[in-house]
Design goal:
Length: about 500
């Protein structure tokens, strides 16, 4: 039907419409003129005819300033016009469109997709990289991760500089560390003709499938020709990508195959911190110099701050908070040269919360979590909002404010479902089970965590189960607290170790 409508148009009008279809569902008269090599005024009769035939209409929400934006009335009309272009005309049209769009300040990701359709993969990868950098700077880690992984998927590591490849890998690792998610469907939209994945990009493991494909495409050709030190650093950043997606087994496999230099130990510590293995963190960072890169230096300071107070308890709080202050100074210094970085500021606030929490100072922990929550909401960082709701709730539970904690946990769980933060959702389930006195559910969570060898989650569940049984005066409290005590010692979480020890001394013999 749409093809028949287009056939009724004059040849000149069809020519203009075909050119317009290169841009997508919306286009610009000035951009159209650049594609056909004419002045915008010369296109006026054809544009008027298309409006009269109800093929196009003025755009309801123009995005670019200073240009005349129009839109197809229906996506099928655009697709019918686009289908009439030859492969050569499409490629040329997309290259010209990319050039014009870049000149008027269009979003780098849009420009990259046009470059890709124009057959210019190298420039497309560069555009995706710049878009990832811009999004991360403006506190959009999910979009930054999408752009960074696209750059890795279409880039050619055999023809590019090592610094370029490393920067892309670091960008993806940093973005994922902030949002912990990768939407495979968003990543692949527009890449279907250019990238073939080895697995299912729509199933529950789709994000990991995409991440593994990007890593293998990047590392595969470089394993033979790259110096050992360079390969180790690149592999370490790849491991952080998998760790951020909670593929800890995959991350450790990567790290096991490279030498343990400073970058490798730093990345191993970062991954161990995500799993709550603070003894491993301390081992990796005990003799590792702080990185020169300000962003990595800040990250290591925060990891160290969390580690020492988790391991040493309240006595290390002052020292840990000093490390957080040093990290914040790096953030401030960087913001003097570039826009404010809400992601970095939130990382500092979250670490400050962890320090108070691990020291057992729950009034201050709750207050810091609320401040961090407000910042996350103000900047629109949904994962951080979800995490800080959980953090505040756990502190309120320890302060006996169960009703407030329950409300925050339900809100956190709703956001966790929305953003795909399954591990936050599982920890919320533990706290909700305690708040609702669900002994059976806490026991189930603890056993499931043990079976999946998730030591941190098991510690979390058995700690709260032991406290609930002790509060109820129910048999079994001692066994659960003793198991939690063993885990707390293994993971070197001093606050939980001391808490379990103290409560065990108060329990009657079973």
């Amino acid at each position: 039907l749409e093809e028949a409508r287009l056939e009724e148009l004059e040849p000149r009008v069809r020519q203009v419409l075909r050119a317009a279809s290169v841009f997508g569902e919306t286009f610009w008269v000035e951009g159209l003129a650049a594609l056909v090599g004419e002045e915008p005024a010369a296109l006026a009769p054809a544009i008027e005819a298309l409006v009269e035939h109800e093929v196009i209409q003025p755009s309801e929400q123009p995005r670019l300033a200073g240009v005349h934006e129009l839109a197809f009335r229906h996506v099928m009309l655009r697709e019918a016009a686009y289908a009439t272009l030859t492969e050569g005309d499409r490629a040329l049209g997309h290259r010209l469109a990319a050039r014009w769009l870049e000149g008027v300040g269009e979003d780098g990701e849009v420009v990259a997709l046009h470059r890709l359709e124009g057959g210019d993969r190298a420039h497309a990868a560069s555009s995706f990289t710049r878009a990832a950098e811009a999004r991360l700077t403006h506190g959009q880690p999910v979009a930054a991760a999408r752009c960074a992984v696209r750059a890795l998927l279409i880039g050619n590591p055999e023809e590019e500089q090592l610094d370029t490849i490393t920067a892309r890998m670091c960008l993806l690792a940093e973005a994922l560390a902030s949002c912990r998610r990768l939407d495979a469907r968003d990543v692949m939209a527009g890449l279907e003709r250019h990238v073939t994945l080895p697995g299912d990009a729509s199933g529950p493991e789709a994000s990991r499938t995409v991440a593994h494909a990007a890593i293998e495409r990047t590392l595969g050709p470089m394993r033979c020709g790259l110096a050992a030190r360079d390969l180790a650093q690149l592999t370490a950043h790849a491991a952080c990508i998998l760790g951020a997606l909670r593929d800890f087994a995959g991350a450790r496999r990567l790290l096991a195959n490279v030498a343990g230099d400073g970058t490798t130990r730093y990345c191993a510590a970062r991954i161990a911190a995500w799993t709550g293995e603070y003894g491993v963190v301390a081992k990796n960072l005990s003799d590792t110099l702080l990185p020169e890169d300000p962003r990595e230096r800040m990250d290591m300071l925060l990891i160290l701050a969390t580690c020492i107070v988790m391991r040493d308890g309240r006595g290390a709080l002052t020292r840990a908070l000093d490390l957080v202050t040093r990290a914040e100074a790096l953030v401030v210094a960087n913001e003097e040269r570039s826009p404010e970085n809400p992601i970095a500021r939130l990382q500092c606030w979250k670490t400050r919360y962890l320090c108070f929490f691990a020291a057992g100072d729950h009034p201050n922990a709750a207050q810091v979590a609320e401040t961090s929550l407000a910042l996350a909401r103000r900047t629109g960082l949904r994962f951080d909002e979800c995490a800080n709701l959980h953090n505040a709730a756990e502190s309120y539970l320890r302060l006996g404010r169960t009703e407030r904690a329950h409300a925050l946990l339900e809100e956190s769980t709703a956001i966790a479902r929305d953003v795909g933060a399954e591990f936050v959702q599982r920890h919320n389930e533990t706290l909700l089970a305690y708040a609702e006195a669900r002994v059976d559910l806490l026991g189930q969570i603890a056993e499931n965590s043990r079976n999946t060898q998730n030591s941190w989650q098991e510690l979390h569940a058995r700690y709260w189960l032991g406290h609930l049984l002790a509060k109820q005066g129910t048999p079994g409290a001692r066994a659960e607290l003793e198991r939690a005590l063993v885990l707390a010692r293994e993971l070197q979480v001093r606050m939980m170790e001391q808490d379990c020890t103290e409560l065990l001394t108060q329990l009657p013999a079973e």
